[in-house]
Amino acid sequence: MRDGVSGDEEDAGTTMSYAAEIAIESGFTDLFVTLTERAWVRDGLAPVEISALFSLVSLAHRDAEAAALLLDMPFLATVEMDDLGMLQDLEQLPPDQLGAALASPSLEGGIGDGDEVAVSALRLAALAPDALSRIERLGWVSDGVSAHESGGVLALHELALDARAVFAAVEARGWLRDGLAIAETRALWTLWAMSGRSYAAADEAATLRILAMPFLDEVSGTDAAALAALDRALSSSRPLFDRILAHPPLASGIADEHAVRVAALDAVVDERPELVDVILDPERTPVETRVVELPLAGAVTLSAVHAGSEPGGTLGIVEEVVRAHEGFMGAAFPASHVAVVVADIGVLGGGGPRGVITVAPGNGEDRRLLAHELAHVYWPFHPPWIAEGAAEFMASRVAELRPLAPCPLADTLGSLDRLAWEDRESSDDIYRGSGCAYSLGRGLFLDLHETLGDEAFRRGFARLYLAMRDESHEAVCAGVERGVCYVRSAFVGDAASASAGLAAPVIDRWYGATEE
Asked: DSSP assignment of 10-22, as one string?
């Protein structure tokens, strides 16, 4: 702090002062000393660590002895987003139950990384024990929850606490009997967002109405995407949401054959709601669909939705690109349903992790544009120079490398980051409006690929994707240089020494001087 205090450090200082006061008042000054000796406190505090610190202070205010036990548990050796989530779950316990919860046999040896389900179950045991009992009687849960099953179990916990009628309706549907597929887990989280009291726009009655519809008898990736589009419509405009459900083909309930069209609404409800009726009308909007089997992701449904235009070769290009992207990334394609909506929404193209992308009319067979937008299913991350640079790089793997205008605002990515950081209200214009995120970001990845060679680059590129997807380095990568911190970790910190030695000067050249 002697080098000057940033906004985050000021927040940390305030929290540390509060922690000291709580420790002294409670007679546990040793607790404060133990806290300050933690490596993640001594080396400066990232935002996720500040939030964890505040949770620990809150827990200590209730039960300082139990908080002291927490500090010695393995999950707090470092602090990541999952650790913060567990602390926040513990904060929801009744104050007099924290100590007993920490002594639970399910936490023998203390809370460790990956114990999110066990900690969430303690919260459910205190607040909704009947629901916990019903969940734990499911055969696939009682046998032990695997890593890929944990997301679904956590979604059930949240529904049981926040939207009990929806939880009961899900139980009645029968999805839970044989485990949860990825699409079913995604649907559960969407149902929670639509109905849970944690969300301002939540509407339990509307959620129950949708949950009773035929398209959710069984849940595929297309059904989950349609549910997500309905959630977006409900959050955007209740009149628009009601209009969708009142559309003549849907008035008696959404069926499987409607799901592709409903999923496509995700692309228009915010910016072009007038296209809702066009997309839902089969006379005005032809739809093509095919199911493909990808080596890593398995079955993926691909759709092309042509709002006011005739079908062309879009779907074939989409399949080729999705296969190429998964092959290059070496990680499962992240969406089980992909819809390309050819419609006039005021931009050339747009895409993101939900798997619904848009292209302007006349561009449905633009291979490079489709490749860029489909890459955003992997790369939706901040800062934009990573998202756009990675998408441009991946597009160059399957389509002709197009020239990009040089960045007019900055010579390096570091300078670009600082401009955006200083003027956050205009950051999207600085990054995307100027074209700088595309040209400088792609330049970095092209240079790394040429320098490292294909195999080493792909390993680093995959590490970067997985780390940013999971927010793995939030305790050390924060602030203006968050993006380059992740890039350095993937291509230098976690790489073999030979590759790291080659990558470091490339990153330095493109990013420029870092802040001290």
From this structure: HHHHHHHHHHHHH
